[in-house]
Structure formats: C-alpha cells, structure tokens
Amino acid sequence: TVAVISGQTGKLMYVMHNSEYPLSCFALFENGPCLIADANFDVLMVKLKGFFQNAKANKIESRGTRYQYCDFLVKVGTVTMGPSARGISVEVEYCPCVIANDCWNLLMEFMQSFMGNHAPGIPSVFGTKHDSIYSPADTMVQYMELFNKIRKQQQVPVAGIR
C-alpha cells in the first residue's frame, strides 16, 4: 500500500498478516515503526482508498510447514510472488527465550545443524533490540526485509543463454 498525502511523495506502508497471530494485522511503515492493529485494519484501509493506493501487484507471501523440535519452533516456507515461487524462508524460534540476543549463539548452532553454511548472520533487528524483549513486530520486520530483498532480486535483468 502506498500512502499519498496531498502533493507529497508517497511513502510505502506494508500491510502484513501472520498465521501465528490471526487476530492481528501488522502495518510496517517505510523506515519507520510497526503498527499492530486488529484484523479489521484491512477494511479500514479500503475505506481510506482516497489517501492510499493499493499495490496488489506486489503481493508476496510465505506459506509452508511449522515444525516443533523440543524447545525450537521451525517454519519452512515457499515465498511466492503471484503464481511463481521466488525463494524459501526459514524461521527459527527458541521458545523459552524472550531476549533475542541472549540466545543468538544457541540459535546459530541449531540452524547450522540443518542448514550448514547457509545459516544466516545476525538479523539487523537484533542490533536495535540489545537487551529488550523480542516481539511479533520484530518477526514481521524480518519478513519485510526478506520480501524486499526477494523483490529487488526479481528486478535484476537475467542474461540470455548463448
């Protein structure tokens, strides 16, 4: 969704949903905060269509399977844009820990056990959180970063095979 304010350049606002929080809707503003609202936020956005322009062509989602292994929650999903698959997402959570930086080394060791050298580096959201409690909004920020990275990869022209 793109916000258009009289005569000003539009700013992006990403409206996101997460099956772990079915009664919530997340609105992430470009370079800004994450608003958590109830699920009817989408209806409000439709009523404000004079101020917001919907960019449906940019719909991107991750769907997959949720696994639980002891205290770890692992979600593996296929990222799709429209009808085509664009990538794979892997979300890992260590359920007993609410301070993300306290368990990062444990998460890395666990991810390396099944992802090998494809395990990611520390997420940027950890740098801003330090010793504060990890929230669902932090997960949505990471999904937004992943989706934007995938969108940018799709814009790169592919060289022809000779």
From TrEMBL:
Keywords from the UniProt entry: Activator, Nucleus, Transcription, Transcription regulation
Record protein name field: Mediator of RNA polymerase II transcription subunit 20
GO cellular component: mediator complex
Organism expressing this protein natively: Pluvianellus socialis
Lineage, opening ranks: Eukaryota, Metazoa, Chordata, Craniata, Vertebrata
Keyword NADP in annotation: no
InterPro entries listed in its UniProt record: Mediator_Med20 (IPR013921)
Principal location class: nucleus
Biological process, per Gene Ontology: regulation of transcription by RNA polymerase II
GO MF annotation, one: transcription coactivator activity
